[in-house]
Known about the structure:
Blueprint: E1 2-13, E2 23-39, E3 44-47, E4 52-55, H1 58-61, H2 73-89, E5 100-106, H3 116-131, H4 138-153, H5 159-166, E6 169-173, E7 176-179, H6 182-189, E8 193-199, H7 205-213, H8 218-232, H9 238-255, H10 260-272, E9 273-279, E10 285-291, H11 296-305, E11 309-313
Parallel strand pairs: 3-5
Antiparallel strand pairs: 1-2, 2-5, 2-6, 3-4, 6-7, 8-10, 8-11, 9-10
Domain GHMP kinase N-terminal: 78-168
Cofactor: Mg(2+)
Active site: 160
Amino acid sequence: MVLVESPAKVILFGEHAVVYGYRAISMAIDLKTTCTVEESDTTIINLKDLKKRLEIPIEEILNLDVNEYGDFKYVLCAIKNTLLYLSSHKNLDLRDLRSFKLTLTSQIPISCGLGSSASATISTIRGISKFYGSYLNDDEVAKIGFGVEKEVQGKASATDTATITYKGLLEIERNNIKRIKGELKEFIKSCKFLICYCEERKKKTSELVNEVAKHKNKDEIFRKIGNIVEKSKITFNKNEFGKLMNMNHNLLKELGVSTLKLDEVVEIGKIYGYGAKLTGAGGGGCVIILVDEGKEDDLINELKERDVEYFECRMVY
Length: 317
Ligand code: PMV
């Protein structure tokens, strides 16, 4: 049996401004999706968390319109595109495909900016290529993964699939992705974060991006966010780093993408942690808090009292 795992992602700084050419920083975190692939008489896809199961002839996957398959669309598209890639680049014979049972389980909450679908996609690509005995390097995996997101969503940014494939810390400039190494990476390795799932997202990323586009002060706000991103790259002190997170949050609030609940949790993160901000497109979803280990118990108590679901995490690299 093949077993592979992929992380989740968060945007540390620069969401929304990145759409306008400024840089953003994303990070892979240790919430994971696990994919197993094993021999089976028929091809079965098992989405354990959703309690959904699909049985489908393997040949059909190669020709289907993935968007007709609801919750299975990312996985089916990832299987299809991986098989096609292996046949054109790695000598896989599509007339001779073995059936398999593919099972996905995940710790990542869905639809809240943590990259749950990209993590399922990347796990599937890695699982299927391994099952058929082929090695794909990270560049190949990221490329197939980005193709899957574009095919399923119509339009996509490479942030999620790249961060989940390469892990660690990445700098994103439009669809140019660069790995961050050196002092910043070492500093982030020493940081503990809490991801707080505050509330369901009320709007899609594309809707929030469109609303921000109409904001009259957006250019000035983006410039300020851009400056924060540049400062964050040379700030290796938790106090200062936390302050930059707070400043980035305030600017996202000014853009109108925060909510009362997100602001409430950010306030808790400011008082009991080094700093906090919403992460991702906003309109609900998650807040990331930089933990001050000296005040961690108070932070956890406060979150529990307000019924906020949280996950401890660190960067994976
Ligand atoms: O919450 P997410 O993972 O969908 O992040 C969206 C980030 C934006 O900057 C708002 C959009 C983008 O494509 O970069």
